Amino acid sequence: MTKQRVAIIGTGVVNNPGIAHPDKGFKQLLTESVYKAIADANIKPTDIQGSSFSYTGESEVGHGGISATLNDALSLSPIPGFINCSNCASGHTAFMQGCDMIESGEYSCVLVAGFEKSTDVLPFFDYALISSDSMYDYNLGYSHIDAVLMQNEYYSKYEISQEKRKQGLLAYAQFARKMGSKNPVAHFFGKKVPSYDELEKLPLFGSFMKTGEGSAAIVLASEEFAQKVSQKPVFVQGRSYITTSHYIGHRYDSSLLNGIDDALLSDAGSGLPLKIACDNAYKQAGITADDIDTIGVYDQFSSEFVSLEAAGICEEGKAIDFILSGGGDIDGRVPINTDGGNIGRGFAGGTAGIYPLVEIVKQLNGTAEGYKIPKPIKYGMSTYIGGGFAHNVAVILTNN
User: Fold this and answer.
1) Cα 70-73-75 angle, rounded to 5 deg
2) Thiolase N-terminal domain spans which residues (predicted)?
């Protein structure tokens, strides 16, 4: 059977994913984004034949098996619903499953949606501990301290000085807030962009994500269905999702990674798992990194540098130079995180991966609400990681 081409025909988000939304439960957050996406797609709820959801996990709402509850809350029953939990990459993996559903030929219209609601069931600090305390994470072989150590290894490998690290982090932190300052969806919308002097006083020079709650949704369709309802569909050109291990040592052991050249397994600072996903997506799309016109990357600490290199946007060890030279600016060679990313837009974990997909769709179809890329663009790429490169997703979109 020939795979159907996957189109994106509608998007919707809850604004300001960088704060808690105490006036909205998870059902209200989800309903807001989904019905915005349905309206944007110019369809009826009854046109949706299946759903793929993402969230952080059972601790967030107090129970599992939640897809039935979500479909019911959205008045979509009776349709099949699937759940995806892949750490920070949950939104992207829900998108991957939605694409699989369309490509199977069994569905012509599918909802992909996620939410983050961390303050209803657990006190916020208990939730934060579950996210980062070694009593929990280290049972999987990973702690968030490891993520920082991996990034230190990146600096060490390429002999990047302390001063250059600082300048790179300052430049990116300011850039992310600048992008967010013009985006009505973003936490930083309308705020004054801080100076380097102000950012220097913040932890990690301001290069940390702004966590909060939110929801984002995308309506997928077959090409035939899209042609009936959409004037500006955006198509999925290539995609890949791979997992390695939460335990970092297993990611660089040739006996535990099938088909990977030993020469690639040099160190933990290279972003190898994401590079594999990006290379797979390029191969499926029939393009190279040189064809990418804009990219979304996971930005926290220094992960944006590693991700840019894993995607081939710049040479290994040169991501900071790329940022400092303006290569990622809105008028640069490859604009990055034009909505502000996790730092400027905000980070709502269970749905975080859907927000950058929505932004790239809007840049490709000319409906971006913040900064608009001034040059004509054809291909946009969204990459995301979860569990510090345990989950790795790359999606290439096109308006062609």
Assistant:
1) 110
2) 23-137
Question: Residue 87 sits in which domain range?
Answer: 6-123+211-222
Q: Return the closest-CA partner of residue 187 out of 22, 17, 310.
A: 17
Count of structural domains within the chain: 1
CB 267 within 8 A of CB 383: no
CA atoms within 13 A on the CB side of 311: 33
Check: CB of residue 331 under 8 Å from CB of residue 359: no
- Over residues 108-126, mean pLDDT: 81
What 3-state class would DSSP assign to 298? Answer: coil
CATH number at residue 62: 3.40.47.10
pTM assigned to the model? 0.93
Strand partners, 84: 54
**Rounded CA separation 363/346 (Å):** 19
pLDDT in tens, 269-291: 678 889 999 999 999 999 999 99
Residue 327: per-residue pLDDT? 98
User: Which tokens hold the place of 213?
Assistant: 């709650």
Handedness of CA 87, 90, 91, 92 (dihedral sign): positive
The answer to whether residue 49 is domain-embedded is: yes
Q: Determine, yes or no, domain membership for 27.
A: yes
In a domain, 282, yes or no: no
Structural domain includes residue 165: no
- Class of residue 258 by CB neighbours under 10 A (exposed 0-12, middle 13-18, buried 19+): exposed
pLDDT for residue 46: 98
Residue pair 300/208 in contact (Cβ under 8 Å)? The answer is yes
> CA of 198: how far to CAs of 54, 175, 195, 201, in Å?
36, 14, 5, 6
Q: Is the separation of the CB atoms in 346 and 301 below 8 Å? A: no
Q: Which tokens is 381 given?
A: 């790429």
Burial category of 343 from C-beta neighbours within 10 Å (exposed 0-12, middle 13-18, buried 19 and up): buried
Token pair belonging to 264: 């690639």
In 42-88, which ranges are continuous DSSP H helix?
58-61, 67-73
